[in-house]
Amino acid sequence: MRDRHLRAAIALVALAGAAAAAYLVYARYTHTQIACTTGGCETVQHSKYAKIAGVPVAVLGLAAYFAILATALSARVEAAALGAAIALGGLAFAIYLIVIQVAVIDAICQWCLASDAILAVLAVLTVERLRRLAGNPHESSGAARMATRG
Amino acid sequence: MSRFFHGRNLLYVGVGSAAAVIAVVLILVSVIGSSSAETTGSVPVTTTTGSGSSTPAAHPKAPGATATAALFRGIPQQLNQLGNPKAKVTMIEFADPQCPYCRQYELDTLPAIVREYVRTGKVKLIYFGIPIIGQNSEAGLRAVYAAGLQNRLWNFSHLLYRSQGAENSGWITDDLLRRIGDSIPGFDTARMMADRQSSDVENALAASAQQATNGRVDRTPTFFAGPTGGTLQQVPLTALTAAAFRPTLDALVK
User: Fold this and answer.
1) Residue of A nearest to B7 (CA)
2) Which pTM was predicted?
3) For B7, what's the count of Cα atoms within 13 Å in the CB-facing half-sphere?
4) Is A136 within 8 Å of chain B by CB?
5) Do A47 and B150 touch (CB under 8 A)?
6) CB-CB contact of B223 with B93 (8 Å)
7) Are B249 and B91 in contact (CB under 8 A)?
8) Does the bond joining B60 to the residue before it have cis omega, within 30 degrees of 0?
9) ipTM
10) Stretches in chain B below the pLDDT threshold 70
11) A64-120: pLDDT as tens digits
12) Residues 6+ apart with CB under 8 A from B240
């Protein structure tokens, strides 16, 4: 898979994550009831863990997805590194939030889990992109149109 | 060793470090923010934010906090409802937080009903609070319904009964309400305190009063049960024990 294919995949998945986060942000600020089959979305979204320093976690998620999307627009290895760092850091934080949902809040938010799954996919894609670019720096400059090795 | 920190490896180390910093900072801010109004011991603790501004003092846990969390753990709550929304049977309780018999039912009987009928998905419970005993009842009900906006009405109401004082003695204080809120895992106490005056809570109080009028309820606790979506009948009770509820509930869930 060429770098541009990986970048396209990252951009698409990041857009999906942004859509899920945007829905939660929309529901929060319009006081709309969240569509939820697990019965715990409102509980999680209204818990004290739903904000970080006054900023809703959904807003942070939305910003992270757009940041990852922006890194996919650049062919530079630095952009790939930044995208991987955001995705990995976000995934670690998402795992912490899953533990909080299960062990503390006693409620599961399906939209949060969907976002977590998307973040996990992004972590894999961004790390793979970084691994390929780091192993084949020519592709990142666009000077060489070499197929990347698997 | 020095050869490791060159080229590709250096890049990987940098990315890993940046990811770790992002995660650690987010988790730390989350933990500090969520614990700033939470009790950590048996005595009040004053906490401060990083900016140096003071926050309200945290409170010691309300009596029965652990048992209450365990009683309702894993059971869906939606506003004033407890249990499977699609349960075959619905049971409504009209209650007043100051009512001693409501407390007796709540502490002695509700756990068995939750265990036998609610956890099993057969019955869902609906709470309607009516301020029959006095003004202090409304203060409690406002907090109970505000907790319902976070889907923790049942935890809050149960903890309030565990701290019940003498009727109209003014025992439902803001301090007690904060302490109860801080005893519910993940609960946003500040939000509950603010929501007490919200239109949602006003509407819930009005709806409860209307339901009580419709059911001609003039005392608490009063229970109605029936098929979900159908007509509910007042539960005939000779005592507030689980055994007194079983004939009605068993007949309905068959």
Assistant:
1) A134
2) 0.74
3) 9
4) no
5) yes
6) yes
7) yes
8) no
9) 0.85
10) 1-6, 36-59
11) 999 999 999 999 999 999 999 999 999 999 999 999 999 888 888 999 999 999 999
12) B101, B104, B105, B108, B109, B221
